[in-house]
Write a structure and sequence with these properties.
alpha/beta, 24% strand, 9 helices, Rossmann fold, 2 domains
């Protein structure tokens, strides 16, 4: 069936509820979109392995998966159709940029699709980082040097210091790399400053799918809840933000209920009715 429109949804905090379950109403809404010739895209910061761990044996009514915040794309059969990685030189440059700002609490993620492999070095680590490291202990590697190819370099920063850190990174390396802000899904407070190859974000990945399918931008919609969704929400023709989002984002985009109360189904209903 030829796809004639595109609907993109974030995962954590948007489609996924706080207890790790899904609303049946949300899943039915996504399946209904597919039956109406709409390409359904799940756009998440998770790696392929992280998403599989979360889903277990559960299947989602999705046609495409935008993973690692746009560094990679998988089709519904699990085949990698896009992979954007950082060279060894790029990884070192980004790591050094963090170090110059005094941000030594960093992780380097393996080259996509192995973005779940967490490379780390000795240092003073925050509790959010330690919890994440413990979760990925089986797939983590201690290294002495950042000289590896990677999907991204993540700096873990206290919220009070995030804005100035991102501003300085934009000034120093922003022309060469993509800097994406995200809120930790672990403690829901620590800011993850994620640095990718130039142009990598959820919006650019969704646009790659859009062009492949030959769908006009006017027939797109997206729903999200956090900072790493902002490029995707600004890209889509119709954008929705769930009620559990930061206040700044709630002011910019059309509001729908939180992830606890059918954010995705509500956004899909409003959008399809407008069409």
């Amino acid at each position: 069936m030829k796809k004639t429109s595109l609907f993109a949804s974030d995962f954590d905090g948007t489609l996924l509820r706080n207890d790790g379950t899904f609303s049946n109403r949300d899943l039915v809404a996504l399946e209904n979109l597919r039956e109406q010739s709409c390409a359904v895209v799940l756009a998440t910061g998770r790696s392929p392995v992280s998403l599989r761990r979360c889903l277990g044996n559960r299947a989602l009514p999705v046609d495409w998966y935008v993973l690692s915040s746009g560094a990679g794309i998988l089709n519904s059969e699990g085949e990698v159709t896009l992979s954007r990685t950082l060279s060894t030189r790029d990884t070192v440059a980004i790591h050094n940029a963090f170090a110059e700002l005094g941000i030594t609490d960093t992780s380097i993620q393996g080259a996509f699709p192995d973005a779940h492999i967490l490379h780390w070095m000795d240092g003073k680590h925050c509790s959010d980082f330690k919890t994440r490291l413990a979760y990925y202990r089986a797939s983590s590697k201690k290294i002495d040097s950042p000289e590896i190819s990677s999907t991204e370099v993540i700096g873990f920063v206290h919220p009070d210091k995030a804005d100035i850190a991102i501003l300085k990174l934009q000034e120093t390396i922003g022309r060469k790399y993509s800097i994406v802000r995200a809120t930790s899904p672990i403690d829901h407070n620590t800011v993850w400053i994620e640095v990718f190859a130039q142009g990598v974000n959820k919006a650019s990945a969704c646009n790659t799918i859009l062009k492949e399918l030959g769908i006009p931008l006017e027939l797109t919609a997206a729903v999200g809840n956090d900072w790493n969704d902002i490029q995707m929400l600004r890209w889509a023709n119709r954008s929705f933000i769930s009620a559990n989002a930061p206040d700044v984002l709630l002011k910019e985009f059309e509001n729908v209920p939180s992830n606890q109360f059918n954010a995705v189904a509500t956004a899909a209903k409003i959008w399809t009715e407008s069409l």
